Each structure stands twice: as structure tokens, then as C-alpha cells.
Amino acid sequence: MKKTVIALFIGGALAAPAAWAQNSTATLEQRMLLLEQRLQAAETRAQNAEKEIRQLKQAGPAPQAAPAVAVVSATPAAETQNNRAAPSLKLSGFGDLKFYGDVEFNMDAESRKGALIGDRDNDNEKWDINGRILLGFDGYRTLDNGHFAGFTAQPLADMTGSMNLDDAAFFFGRENDWKIKIGRFEAFDMFPLNQDTFIQHSGDTANDLYDDGHGYIYMMKEARGRSDSGGNFLVSKQLDNWYFEVNTLVENGSSLFVDGNYHGRKLTNDKNVVYVRPVISWTQDALSLSAAMESNLVNNAYGYYNQQGSWVEQSKRNGYGAVLTWNGLKNDPDNGVVLNLNTAYLDASGEKDFSAGVNALWKRFELGYIYAHNKIEQFDQRALAECDDGCWITDTGTYDIHTLHASYQIPNIMDMQNFNIYLGTYWSWLNEKGGDEGSQDRYGARVRFKYFF
Question: What CATH number did the domain enclosing 426 receive?
């Protein structure tokens, strides 16, 4: 038994080195094979890299990505590094957002003689610096099917230290087809004045158009919009060369008149007016023709009580206008001529007004003339005690207003395309037909600094 155990032990000891030698040889062969496979893979990757480099050299430099929004912080860089993430500006992702600005400051010199507008300091010259800075925020989103929606907001900071608002509107529709617009804005311009720099007369703003006792130049603006007492709802349609628009303005109708006075009487506002202003326009190359009307649809919106205590309506106002425009700048930006021929007629309670104007722009020089004919059919002279010598229209009758205006643009100040200076001047005078007194005139000049950003 002992001999058997000893024999087995000796046999195992002799067999173990042979088995180890066989296993070691197999492991070494596997390692060599694995190393060879890795060398082949590395060689393949090197060949692919060389191929990609040759392709990049042939294709040229890669296009740069669109610049991202840069956020500049006044915080020191060392403190910013303590933030968990770098400062960023994030948008909602619903379309594009644009921020822009419009700087406009004026230096004016003008007379007060005759006071064709409602300035009561008669016979005093006026020296003035005025202006404002507009900040614009526009949002716009369009889809592949042409549908779009957007908004605009334009706060104004003026030199009086107050904040105002130019436009604030929401719109939507289909591109080159139809659009709906709601808010505060101006509709189609039916009395364009070309390079409008300095034109002073009664009837030159959206609200407080009519200053009692002074001349009125009717320009189809009463229902155009941008009112301080109401809002607009506009529907428009583009059909080939034709453009159709219907603007509806709901507002306090007596806001049209300065201090609520009309023909020597204080108006009482009973309800808001609803103006409807349809426009049709046709354009072919540089030529365009437009026609429109505006009318208040609400009866007895405002008026006054006579001596018998009876109500007298004054809210009837129907206007009509037409414009012919030639815009030669479309085909010739350097030497093209822009020409406007404007006309408008107003049939109102106790008054009939007609206006016509022509203006032309060529090589940054603009010249224009406006004629207005006012026929006053009602006037209460008892209110004259409240009106000083600045009032020129003091009775029924026919009055004519003539206005000449001119301007010139000095472009690219300091080689900046967004910085221009405008020189403007006007001369306006009023005559009473059949009156004994001479004409009342007013004139002025302006230097305007215009900067866009």
C-alpha cells in the first residue's frame, strides 16, 4: 500500500511540469495573436484619420456657426466664476425676438405770430430742444404653411422726463395673404408727406387734431389710429397687386378736439364713437393708387345742449381721400424720384373741409405744398371771451390755409449709415375769404438728429 501511494505521488510530480508547459505555451500564443489584432486596428484608424484630413483640406475651412447671444455682465470675472453656470439669455423658443431703437432729437426755431396751431403765446418767438428715444421689441413666428403671429411694443422716453408709448399691437395671419391686427397703431397713410421733418399747422397729430379757433388741415387721420383714448382692430388682404384694408377705431370721440371745444361750444361726450375706415390700393412697379373713406357709425356720441336745453348732435363726421404715389427709388435708389399727390374731403357737423397736397423727394431734398379750405357753418361767438388774440377763426365763413415745407437729409454722419441729420423748414399762412384783415402766418426751421440702433 505504501509503495502504491509513493508511486502515485512521484507520477503526479513528473506530470505537472509537462501540463504547465503546455498551458503556458497556449497562453503565449493567444497573447501574440491579440497583440497582432490591436496593431492592425491601430493601423486602420491611422489610415482613416489621414483620409479625413485630406478631405478636409480639399473642402476648405468649415463654416462658422451663427453667433450666439453674448451676455455681458458688470460683475467681476472672478465673482462670475463662482456661479454654478455661466450667465445666459434664454428665449421661449416661440419664434424670433428683435430689439431695436430710434433716437430723434430736434433743435427748433420758429415764430408764434398768428398761432395757426393752438399756441397761446402770440407774437413770441420759440426756441426749443425736444425729442425722444424709442425702444422697440418685436416678436415674430412663422410656420412652414405660411401662418404667422407676432407683436410689437414701442415705449418712448421723451425729454420732459415722462414715458409714453408709440405702438403696442398683436397680429396674426398668413404671409402675403391676410392679416388681423389689434392694439395701438396707425393704419394706412392716406396723406403721405414724404420726408416729413418740420411741418406745423393745426391737425398734425393723432389726438387733439382740431384746435377750435384755428385752421384745420384734414388729412384722413381721424380714424387712422394710435389714439390715446381707444384701440384699433384691422383686417387686411393682399391679392396680387391689390391691397384691401378695413380699420375699426373705438375711442372717446371728443378727444379729437383740444379741450373738448368745437365751434365755440363745450362738447359733452355721451358714448364712444366707432370709426370704420376701408382702404383699397393698387400697386404696379413704382406706381400706386389708393382710395379710402372714414365714418363714425354711432349717432349722438357727443354734442352740446343749446339755450333751450335741447341736445344738438355734433358727432357726424364722414371723410374721403385719394392718393397717387410714384416711388422711383424702387428701381433707382440713387436718382429715383418719390412723388405724392394727396387729396381729402370732410363732411362734418357744421363744417366742410377740403385739403390737397403735393410733395416730391429727389437726391435727399424734399419740397411740398399743402392747401386747405375750411367752410365753417356754425360758430358760437359767446366763447370768444375765453379765447385770446391767438384765435383767428372767430365766426362762420370760409378760410384758406397754405403751407410750404422743405427738408434735406445729410446722410452717414461720421461714416455711420445709421446716423443722419435732417434740415427742415416750413411757412404756413391763413386767409379769410372776403375778410378785411390780412393773412396770419407762421414759419420755422429745425435741425433733427436721427440715429438708429
Answer: 2.40.160
Strand partners, 268: 303
Count of domains observed in the chain: 1
Cα–Cα separations (whole angstroms), residue 17 to 10, 23, 26, 71: 12, 10, 14, 75
How far is 195 from 358, CA to CA, in rounded Å?
12
Q: Which residues fall within 8 angstroms of residue 438, CB to CB, at 6 or more apart?
A: none
Q: Among all chains, which residue has been given the C-alpha cell 443722419?
A: 420
Residue with cell 415722462: 162
Long-range contacts formed by 269-273: CB under 8 A, 24+ apart = 269/301, 269/302, 270/300, 270/301, 270/302, 270/303, 271/298, 271/300, 271/301, 272/230, 272/298, 272/301, 273/249, 273/297, 273/298, 273/301, 273/302, 273/315
pLDDT in tens, 351-392: 999 999 999 999 999 999 999 999 999 888 776 555 655 677
Calpha distance 446→197 (Å, rounded): 8
Residue 363 lies in a domain: yes
Residue 12 covered by a domain: no
